[in-house]
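Researcher: Please predict.
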Amino acid sequence: MYKVLTIAGSDSCCGAGVQADLKAINALGAYGTCAITAVTAQNSLGVSSVFNVPASVVGQQIEAVVSDIGTDSLKTGMLVSKEVVAVVCNIFRKHSLKNLVVDPVITSHKGKRLLSEEGIRKLVSDLIPLSCLVTPNIPEAEILTGRKIKIFSDVKDAASALFDQGASNILIKGGHAMNHEDGNHDNTNGEIVDLFYDGKEFQYFREKRVDTDNVHGTGCMYSAAIATELAKGNNMISSIITAKIFITKVIKESSKPGKGHRLADFTHQTGEEDH
């Protein structure tokens, strides 16, 4: 049995956060566990309120899982504060955990700030250097590096900057790359191009852009899928390739149960009909 621990916020519409992570982990054949960092009231239209779980309680959740079930990999999402980031770092070191994938959730899809400025600094200085992979999207990479990303060469510069900050492997997700207010576009021929950098060479992961509305929670599930493949003992590149194929399929098969963003829909896997 492969085990994956997700440390992230709860999403009441189950489109992102812990709930989305657990769906992805299960779909890829692993046993998912969780530690909830925040309880959000949100739906497909956006986040209306956030209750941050005390850092000590987050730590107790992680300890409860690690001391009993254990984990072959873990991923972090919404960490809310520097205190929570510190707890995750301390427990990671204490138990000599491995295969940490950091998805640096900083804002919601509507722009609501989900991690404090102090938390961002702690994430960069302490947590990212412990990770085997950090997976920012374009806006997150801009915040983490303090660099504007307007064209594809800027993505490479941001990846290099993250490596200099202590990241061992960087995957900058390209879903936002074509949509800048200043109108700059890179030549990706209708593809979503994710950029991987390990400090030695750049690699590109390409999939044809799916012609659909934004799908809520894809970043969460993408990083959870990578963590799941790493838990199975697969290498980094193989894990990213499998996760990229998986998340593209999720986007293609997403549905719109609410009034806002599309959500991942796994009912097709059980033969359930839409109602």
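Model: The radius of gyration is 17 Å.
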